Amino acid sequence: MTAVDDRRMTEYFESFEAPEGVKVELLRGEIVMMAGPDVVHNLIVLFVQRQVPVGRWYPLQTQDVDIPAESSEPQPDLVVLPAEAAPESGRLVPASALAMVVEVVSKTSKLRDYVTKRSIYAAGGIPTYLIIDPFQAKCVVLTEPFGAGEEADYRTERTSKFGEPVPLDVLGLTLDTAEFGTLP
């Protein structure tokens, strides 16, 4: 896509009105729509959010992220940013302000979460990407982003099963996953 095409797509995306209950994201110039999440999904996000110490960190749901070099405005299930880096207002938070993004895998998001968003978040320089997979009962912590575009990735990948502690060094905490539910 050219810069003009990217700008037009972004303008169209920002004016697009999704049906109620539908989540919409701009991923590498494509508008992606998905149904609302399962209760298990929402509870996992809640359990993670409750473990992030508010005051030092702001864990935010339904927050759009600006990754300009990627023509992407993903909406992770949870973003975590230092309290002092939080913008005063606005729909988009710059990727550079984030410490971590969290995606909980759904039936229709597996490829996006494990592949597309992995490279988008790495290209945006987001230090930690946590993938929580209730179908496989595991957490994947990705750190040390490098590269650009679709070739961007994370150098370090650590996998833990549900019930095992998950170290989140970027936040200085260990995530308790004992309450995370699973899906068939």
UniProtKB/TrEMBL annotation:
Domain Putative restriction endonuclease positions: 11-177
InterPro entries per the UniProt record, alphabetical: Nuclease_put_TT1808, Restrct_endonuc-II-like, Uma2
UniProt cross-references to Pfam families, sorted A to Z: Uma2
Name this protein carries in UniProt: Putative restriction endonuclease domain-containing protein
Organism: Streptomyces spororaveus
The organism's taxonomic lineage, starting at the top: Bacteria, Bacillati, Actinomycetota, Actinomycetes, Kitasatosporales
